[in-house]
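ok trying this again, last paste got cut off
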Amino acid sequence: MPAANEALHQVESALNDILLGKPDRVRLALTCLLANGHLLIEDQPGVGKTTLAHALAAAMNLDYRRVQFTSDLLPGDVLGVSVFAQGSGEFRFHPGPIFTQVLLADEINRAPPKTQSALLEAMEERQASVEGATRPLPEPFFVIATQNPEEQVGTHPLPESQMDRFLMRIELGYPDARAERALLERGGAAPAPVAHPAPDAIVTPEDLQGWQSRIAQVHAEPVVLDYLQDLIQTSRDRARFVHGLSPRAGLGLLRAARAYAFLDGRDYVTPDDLADVLPAVAGHRVRAREPDTPARTVERLLECVPVR
């Protein structure tokens, strides 16, 4: 645990040096990766979504591909296609960008639903079925999707089934004044600054896979599981909420809390860990009966469930 914690601290520090003023969002992104989930980042263009994805892949020494989702993007553009080779007289499969370790699905809600759904099997089963053949994806496999606000022109809202494939959903928001000043000073240091700077590789993919396998060993006391179960059951109270947490979401919440504790150098989960990751895990899943923001909906859920 100490060695892992030291290396992860270096990764976290390197990411914070690039994405200024967002340490809590950096920690949640790392948590999602350690928990072997997928991450959805929803925010305005230009706030650092792509920068975070690129930097995270570089720090972990992971293969990285980026797909710009557009209205004319086809499923084959993501998954790959078979092309007839005249020399051999056979069809040869040309893998699409999804065959990588970190896939950035940029502006995913600008693509039509058919193309969005091409990611469903890959995100859930870690495999892709193309032209009748099932092909495994590289390990680890991590999807970071960015999404523009739904009120912007040319967007297609993600259906609930697609949203549920993302373990976490976060917003980056604008930087505070101090961070933005540092960003402006850094950007003015050269006539053509690098758009997406990346840190040197700090750990290996094998390190990451080892940590991911140890997440399940992080202990959760019965009292913590009681608190988790209370949160799940309360989210299903039809008097307060329209949609609650599914069993899969509950398991994801526990996995995220374990990863959050592991990132903090602990081998046990606390109720605070659950509360800290709950907004990112439940914000896109739980809907209050009275229209409200996702953040306020999660606050209401926490207010309804006291810690035992």
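PB: full thing came through this time. The chain has two domains: 11-184+203-208, 218-304.
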